[in-house]
Design a protein that fits this description.
This protein has a single domain, classed as L-arginine/glycine Amidinotransferase, Chain A (5-stranded Propeller), CATH 3.75.10. The chain is built from seven helices and 15 strands. It has a three-stranded mixed β-sheet with strand order 2-1-15, with helices on one face. A three-stranded mixed β-sheet has the order 3-4-5, sandwiched between helices. The longest helix is centred in the first third of the chain and has 17 residues. It is globular, with a radius of gyration of 18 Å. Bound molecules: arginine. The site of arginine (ARG) has 16 residues, from loops. This is Amidinotransferase. It comes from Streptomyces tsukubensis (strain DSM 42081 / NBRC 108919 / NRRL 18488 / 9993). GO terms for molecular function: transferase activity.
């Protein structure tokens, strides 16, 4: 049988990879600071530099625009320093918006703030959820299914609620390492059937599920995970990720992706990076 280049089972070559243009939602870190600690990365005694945070965030926004994506911006609210982490604001699939209900009181006001934005921007199917869930921090869509984190933030009861709302299969995964408290800190979707993840962040059962579902996944080393390398955004070709994740950058190149390293060191002081700042609308 004639084959075009790659042998069967071989990862797609770069020429076969295609970037898909997305519509993204971000929130300028105007009121960014670390004034409380709700994850091990946050140390309120360590100074933050607001100007640097703004600059790094702006560079990420401009990078997305240069890659052909559309970026919407939600107005930041004073007193909500973590609102820059737009991924947590909701989960959007097929235009349906599953609202976020935060675990910690420091962030609870963000749920309604994000939902208001959706209500005012033409989104008609909105759900204010019953169970705690932190949006796309813990819900990641892979093709026509959804991977869902639990263990630190999102209540596992939310997974059934999301499955019912979206009508798509939701697979629950348990996180066990407090440094990787959201699914998007331990796993990243690269293409509709490809992911990369850090096995040690998951319970043994969840690791087995991931091996079963994605036998060819890119696995992150301790070093890549420790610099938040999995907190990445992929459009199917370009993968935007922290530049310090050099191991992942090499693996992604071998797989035919175009990894683009960025520096978001200020936001990392709050335990967030590329994907945390990015809510995928479509
Ligand atoms: N300081 C924030 C928190 O602990 C960081 C959120 C990061 N967002 C993410 N999608 N992982 O809630």
């Amino acid at each position: 049988m004639p084959r075009n280049g790659a042998a069967a089972g071989e990862p797609a070559a770069r020429a076969e990879r295609k970037a898909v243009a997305h519509r993204l939602l971000m929130c300028r870190p105007q009121y960014f600071d670390v004034t409380y600690s709700i994850n091990p990365w946050m140390n309120p005694k360590k100074p933050t530099d607001a100007a640097t945070a703004l600059l790094q965030w702006e560079q990420l926004r401009e990078l997305y625009l240069s890659l052909g994506h559309t970026v919407e911006v939600v107005e930041p609210v004073p007193g909500l320093p973590d609102m820059v982490f737009a991924a947590n604001g909701a989960t959007v699939v097929d235009g349906k918006v599953f609202g976020a209900r935060f675990r910690h009181r420091e962030r609870t006001a963000e749920g309604p703030a994000y939902l208001d934005w959706f209500a005012g921007h033409g989104f008609r199917e909105l759900l204010w959820p019953e169970h705690i869930n932190e949006g796309e921090g813990d819900y990641l869509r892979v093709g026509r299914r959804i991977l869902a984190g639990t263990g630190f933030r999102t209540d596992s009861r939310s997974h059934a609620e999301a499955q019912e709302f979206f009508g798509l299969p939701v697979t629950g995964l348990t996180l066990v390492d407090p440094d990787f408290y959201h699914l998007d800190t331990a796993l990243s979707v690269l293409a509709p059937d490809e992911i990369m993840y850090y096995p040690a962040a998951f319970s043994p059962g969840s690791r087995a599920v991931l091996r079963e579902m994605f036998p060819d996944a890119v696995l992150a080393t301790d070093q890549d995970a420790a610099v938040f390398g999995l907190n990445a955004f992929s459009d199917g070709l370009n993968v935007v990720l922290p530049q310090a994740a050099t191991g992942l950058i090499a693996r992604l190149k071998e797989r035919g992706f175009n990894p683009i390293g960025v520096s978001l060191g200020e936001l990392l002081k709050a335990g967030g990076s590329v994907k945390c700042c990015t809510l995928v609308l479509s």
